[in-house]
Amino acid sequence: DLYRKVFVFRKDPSDAYVVLKTKLEQPLQNFTVCLRSYTDLTRPYSLFSYATKAQDNEILLFKPRPGEYRFYVGGKFVTFRVPEGRGDWEHVCASWESATGIAEFWFNGKPWPRKGLQRGHTVGVEAAMLLGQEQDAFGGGFDLYNSFSGELADVYLWDVGLSPDKMRAAYLSLRLPPALLAWKSLSYEAKGDVVVKPRLRE
């Protein structure tokens, strides 16, 4: 249970990452991924990377520069521009549904204009899921200058698109529906220089 704790990625650039473990029974037609990050990086970095053997950017949350997030599904991406960080935690949720190809992006509890992405795609099952590095090969192929440095918390993955009230609940750390990956019962393995510490501030 990582409640009120964080992963601290201490070095910059870093070869560290966290492997997330869950058993996916079937391919994903819908999903929502949420997490909270705290960093002063201005270079590109990866937050959440879900790779299959067929597609290294099957799901990817990537921040190429301050004030911009890229959300990848099946190797294609859409960009969401957000207010420039003020040295605070940033909470993001990204959800996607295959039937409509609608990509939804929530930043600090507020929805951004929806975009179209990979309609009809199916997200593969045999996946390597990592925090803090961007995979250019299944489970590896890292570029140190896309690595994350800072603090990560409140990581979740659901196999559904969350409703607006649940998106807000995720931002406020309220009760959430059962998830494939849940911060309060996370099965993970830290690789390299990653430390679990209490959260210092809200």
Beginning-to-end CA distance, first to last residue: 18 Å
Counted up, domains total 1
Which architecture would the CATH scheme give at its second level?
Sandwich
The amount of helix comes to under 10%
Strand content: 35-45%
GO cellular component, one term: extracellular space
Main location: secreted
GO molecular function: complement component C1q complex binding; metal ion binding
Disulfide bonds: 34-93
Q: What would you say this structure looks like, in words?
A:
This is Pentraxin family member. GO terms for molecular function: complement component C1q complex binding; metal ion binding. Disulfide bonds join 34-93. Pfam families: Pentaxin. The structure is a single chain. The protein has one domain: Sandwich (Jelly Rolls). The chain is mainly β. It has one helix at 164-171, and strands spanning 5-9, 17-20, 30-38, 45-52, 59-65, 68-73, 76-81, 90-97, 102-107, 110-111, 115-116, 127-131, 150-158, 188-191, 194-198. A hairpin with a 2-residue loop joins strand 9 (102-107) and strand 10. The radius of gyration is 15 Å and the shape is globular. Strands 1, 3, 8, 9, 10, 11, 13 and 15 form an eight-stranded antiparallel β-sheet that branches. A seven-stranded antiparallel β-sheet has the order 7-6-5-4-12-2-14, with no helix packed on it.
Compact description:
The protein has 202 residues and is mainly beta. Helices cover 4% and strands 43% of the residues.
